Amino acid sequence: MSAHKYELMLIADPELDERALKKLTEQFLKVVTDEKGTIDSTDYWGRRKLAYEIAGKTEGNYAVIEYTAEPATSDELDRLLNLNESIIRTKILRKDAE
Asked: What SUPFAM superfamilies does UniProt report for this protein, alphabetically (predicted)?
């Protein structure tokens, strides 16, 4: 197995302040670093209006993270994100799939 580059976009509960969002994000990204992956960039977009209502929310806290990891690590990250109630929506894209 070899590592791939990924981009994770997550939308968190708009009630979280930036510090809470960063703490939550770092907690999830530890899964990547614990498995010898790397976090390449982290970009917090802050609160934005959602294109459509999700789980009764009209706004969300956006974060975009680029990382390099094994596919199994990315799958585990996705699984953990989906279990967290503070995370409204996630999308993981493989960047080097071309």
From this structure: Ribosomal protein S6
pTM: 0.91
Domain span holding position 50: 24-89
pLDDT (tens digit per residue) in 52-77: 999 899 999 999 999 999 999 999 99
Task: Show the CA angle centred on residue 31, arms to residues 26 and 37, nearest 5°.
Answer: 100
Give the chain's domain count: 1
The pair of structure tokens assigned to 7 is 């981009």
Q: Which of 48, 51, 49, 44 is nearest to 21 (CA)?
A: 44
How high does pLDDT run on average in the chain? 93
Assess contact for 81 and 28: CB atoms under 8 A. Answer: yes
C-alpha span between 10 and 66 (Å, rounded): 11
